[in-house]
Amino acid sequence: MSISSSKQLILSTYRQILKEINNQFTNQNNNQLWRKEAISTFQQYRNLSNKEEVEKLTKDAEDLLCFLKIHGYSEEKRIELTANRVGLKLPIMMDKQINEDKNLYTEAMRVKSCK
């Protein structure tokens, strides 16, 4: 990986992490702690030149970003994504099916009463 593409990847990951932190923590409850910690951590390693260390920290940042994105999903969405990842499709849940059946029945009755 070249230096310029590595730098672009790091900056992109940094921006995405800040965006996720703002969406999940800062905007919801005005908690600046995560944002300040992310900024200080990235600034601490700003002038790092050891290639192996840069790659390790970049991987850690990407893992953090993945965690933050998944943390923002509902439990149902996380389960669906996990099932999709291993090639499964979740069955339609019974309560969803009942609601759909009720909606179809209601619609049929409404159409029938219009005739």
Automatic annotation (TrEMBL):
InterPro entries xrefs: Complex1_LYR_dom
Record domain Complex 1 LYR protein: where: 10-65
Highest rank taxon of the organism: Eukaryota
Name of this protein: 16750_t:CDS:1
Naturally occurring in which organism (per UniProt): Funneliformis geosporum
